[in-house]
Amino acid sequence: MTKFMWFQLISIFFVLAVLVLICVFEDRLVTNSLENVADYVYQIETAIEENDGIRNSKVENLVDNLEYDWFNDESNLCFLVNHKSIQEIGIEIIKLKTYIEEDDIREFSISLELIKLYSEQYFHFMGASFHNIL
Amino acid sequence: MLTIIVRAIIIYLIVLFLYRLMGKRQLGEMQPFELVLTLIIADLATIPMAEISVPVLHGVVPLLTLVLVHFILTVLCKVSTKFSRFVSGKPVIVVNPEGVDYKAIKNLNLSIDDIMEAIRGAGYFKLEQVQYAIMETNGKMSVYPKSEFSPVTNGDMNIKAEKSCLPINLISEGKIIKENLKIANLNENYIMKLLNKANIKKVKDCLILTIDKGGTVFVQAFEGKYQTFKVEPLGQVQE
């Protein structure tokens, strides 16, 4: 084996490792962040039922936590996809906070449903699937 | 703008690394799959470079993947001749002693004009001068002339010629190349002697100095005409 062949071999293994790392990072990030959103939505829905309304500290805290976690995840997701493609969840979270202030449970519920829908849609176009490959 | 500058640097460095990885063959004789790869790489590299909305990874990941696939294809081509022929095709004889093989040139989607052009490129202007013309897998035409039209060599004339040897570059743009000095088994004092012989006082005044195994020296100062002279052949130099 010549020096160049060693360089090629090591580089190819390095490239392979980088690709595997990127795929694992993408898969974990997409799955975790979207599952996290869905989990928060479920917790908020339960909190609304338990407290009979949206103007209470539990719902407010959950929405704050959802906002904090989502914006953290969103900045990481921007390494993988165009920011514009995943901005709807962020917009809906901001709307949730406004609806809490206005105590508008109807619009709040619509936004929650939209967040659920968007998280499912994002998973469809970011997750690894046969449909996406083709 | 800073984003675009940084992105351009990142992509440039990655593409440079990838081309280095693929070897120098990329720059000259490209096989069909190498040509495809080169075209795709050029296109892929420009998208994330100029388009801020596209993440750099969208350019980098396909680039790395393509190089990986290319490496696997290259290894498979080396291992299996059949696979190599499938990917790159095989050389085709388009002119044989009986003349132009029309069927072969039709299969290659070539015309007589293309054949004539390639033959002229090889230095032959008449078809009757050509014994064989072979279309290589990289798209180049190799021409084997009939014996009466092939160039005369020293061997044909029974002339004993000096063995040609590659010159070693000892000074380049005013700097001694120490690596080559070691190869030639010479030292700096000997170089100074050569420079004095050429009326050059300092190393930094010398543009180029080469010496071959037979002892032929080529030297040129930054200003002035070059000089050549003979010294003792390398290996017989008395320090």
Describe this protein with a few key phrases.
heterodimer, A: 134 residues, mainly alpha, B: 239 residues, alpha+beta, CRO Repressor, 3 domains, five-stranded antiparallel beta sheet, four-stranded antiparallel beta sheet, 9 strands, 44% helix
Question: What is the count of helical runs of chain A?
Answer: 5
Helix content of chain B: 40-55%
Alpha-carbon Rg of chain B, integer: 26 Å
On the 0 to 100 scale, the average pLDDT of chain A is 87
Helix-strand layout with pairing:
The complex is a heterodimer of chains A (134) and B (239).
Chain A: H1 3-51, H2 57-77, H3 88-102, H4 105-126, H5 130-133
Chain B: H1 2-22, H2 32-50, H3 56-79, H4 81-88, E1 92-96, E2 99-100, H5 102-107, H6 112-121, E3 130-135, E4 141-145, E5 168-172, E6 175-176, H7 178-183, H8 188-197, E7 206-211, E8 216-221, E9 227-230
Antiparallel strand pairs in B: 1-2, 1-3, 3-4, 5-6, 5-7, 7-8, 8-9
Helix pairs in contact in B: 1-2, 1-3, 2-3, 3-4
Q: Could you describe the 3D structure shown?
A:
- The complex is a heterodimer of chains A (134) and B (239).
- Chain A is 83% helix and 0% strand.
- Chain A has 134 residues and is an all-alpha fold.
- In chain A, helix 1 packs antiparallel against helix 2 (57-77).
- The radius of gyration of chain A is 20 Å and the shape is elongated.
- Chain A starts with a helix and ends with a helix.
- The mean pLDDT of chain A is 87.
- Chain B folds into 3 domains: 2-85, no CATH class; 92-149, bsu07140 like domains (CRO Repressor), CATH 3.30.240.20; 168-230, CRO Repressor (2-Layer Sandwich).
- Helix content of chain B is 44%, strand content 17%.
- Chain B has helices at residues 2-22, 32-50, 56-79, 81-88, 102-107, 112-121, 178-183, 188-197, and strands spanning 92-96, 99-100, 130-135, 141-145, 168-172, 175-176, 206-211, 216-221, 227-230.
- Chain B is flat and about 60 Å long.
